[in-house]
């Protein structure tokens, strides 16, 4: 019979799943808390660049779709905070860490959404990249995280399709509309490639996460997968990926492409992206403005509980 | 103030039992049900929801799982495959 850490190791080696109350190394727990919290923060901060366009969506259909998408992202955040809590942390504390800047969210959400085409580009590229990252996480060794990812992935494909549809419509519209789509692709291409993290050679946490079955593929593998999947879609749209070095290897079917400038990623992570301060300030304000709702709900629950006790006595 | 944690169970359609889908925070049971509807059934994933205060669940301990489940380990005769059925016997 295996107990404690031996049982953990045996489960990992057999590609089994670790569940909340199982014994696990402290590093495994910490890595998961950090990763799941950062993932949850990304989902809720990610509502901002798109939420910004709900009131200006070009039709009622687009508005309803965008609202449903942004609401899904809130849901994704909640699934993930719930998964993180199974590791013994409180959601309230995680939010404090986000608000004080001690925990990060994905850098992609620190870029502005300047035109309606950006909403298309986000769905197509950003949700597209998120799918490539998240599908392997459905097999993550930590059960609650993997299950949350299954739920998230089911919902993501609508996000990606609605984005592609927006761009497809623009690309079949006027010259100006097509130019708008091209401009969005130009601006979102490189930040999307950076969503997979630094190149394998300089990725700090990867090796241990692979050994623990948290991560299944390297950053560069996933980036390659994304490029291979996306370039032919750009061809269908009739817009150009802004990479002069892009070529397709006929034999392997893989594209070779120019690495993004990772110094930009490190700068954005450090807080120097175009919208870092705005995103965080907005999040903190939303949290503080909502305090009275939480307090009112708690007061009401207390009053009802007291009433129930009174009638039972 | 930390809102209590509720575990959420959903019956996806009639004829199936409720299955655990995750958890959420809410100040009371009514709000927990409403939040569960918004968080876990945005695409008609359910026809019925249970919410249970997480603190009211008593669980078996993972440390004792071997001893705890041992008694069933050597009772293979509880499975129909344990028995030999003579040739030619049907519907058994
Ligand atoms: Fe999401
Ligand atoms: Fe999404």
Automatic annotation (TrEMBL), chain B:
Pfam families with a match to the protein in the record: PaaB
One of the record's GO molecular function terms: phenylacetyl-CoA 1,2-epoxidase activity
Domain of life, source organism: Bacteria
EC number: 1.14.13.149
Keywords: Oxidoreductase
Transmembrane segments: none
NCBIfam families assigned: PA_CoA_Oxy2
Protein name as catalogued: 1,2-phenylacetyl-CoA epoxidase subunit B
Organism of origin: Kribbella qitaiheensis
């Amino acid at each position: 019979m295996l107990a404690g850490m031996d049982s953990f190791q045996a489960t990992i080696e057999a590609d089994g799943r670790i569940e909340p109350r199982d014994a696990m190394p402290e590093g495994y727990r910490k890595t998961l808390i950090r990763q799941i919290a950062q993932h949850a923060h990304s989902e809720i901060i990610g509502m901002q660049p798109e939420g910004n366009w709900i009131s200006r969506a070009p039709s009622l259909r687009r508005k309803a779709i965008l609202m449903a998408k942004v609401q899904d992202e809130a849901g994704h955040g909640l699934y993930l905070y719930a998964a993180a809590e199974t590791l013994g942390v409180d959601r309230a504390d995680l939010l404090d860490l986000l608000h004080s800047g001690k925990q990060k969210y994905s850098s992609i959400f620190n870029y502005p959404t300047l035109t309606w085409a950006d909403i298309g580009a986000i769905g197509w590229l950003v949700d597209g990249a998120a799918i490539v990252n998240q599908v392997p996480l459905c097999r993550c060794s930590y059960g609650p995280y993997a299950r949350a990812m299954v739920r998230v992935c089911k919902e993501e494909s609508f996000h990606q399709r609605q984005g592609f549809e927006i761009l497809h419509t623009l690309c079949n519209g006027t010259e100006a509309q097509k130019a708008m789509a091209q401009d969005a692709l130009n601006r979102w291409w490189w930040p999307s490639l950076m969503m997979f993290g630094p190149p394998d050679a300089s990725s700090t946490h990867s090796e241990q996460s692979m050994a623990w079955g948290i991560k299944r593929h390297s950053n560069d593998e996933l980036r390659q997968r994304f490029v291979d999947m996306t370039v032919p879609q750009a061809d269908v749209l009739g817009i150009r990926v802004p990479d002069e070095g892009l070529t397709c290897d006929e034999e392997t079917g893989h594209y070779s492409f120019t690495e993004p400038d990772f110094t930009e990623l490190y700068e954005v992570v450090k807080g120097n992206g175009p919208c870092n301060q705005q995103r965080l300030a907005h999040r903190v304000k939303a949290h503080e403005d909502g305090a009275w709702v939480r307090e009112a709900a708690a007061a009401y629950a207390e009053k009802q509980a007291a009433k129930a006790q009174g009638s039972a006595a | 103030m930390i809102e209590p944690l509720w575990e959420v169970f959903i019956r996806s359609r009639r004829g199936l039992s409720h299955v655990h889908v995750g958890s959420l925070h809410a100040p009371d049971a009514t709000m927990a049900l409403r939040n569960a509807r918004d968080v876990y059934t945005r695409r008609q994933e359910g026809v019925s929801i249970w919410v249970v205060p997480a603190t009211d669940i008593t669980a078996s301990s993972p440390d004792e799982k071997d001893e705890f489940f041992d008694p069933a380990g050597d009772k293979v005769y509880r499975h129909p495959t344990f028995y030999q059925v003579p040739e030619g016997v049907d519907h058994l």
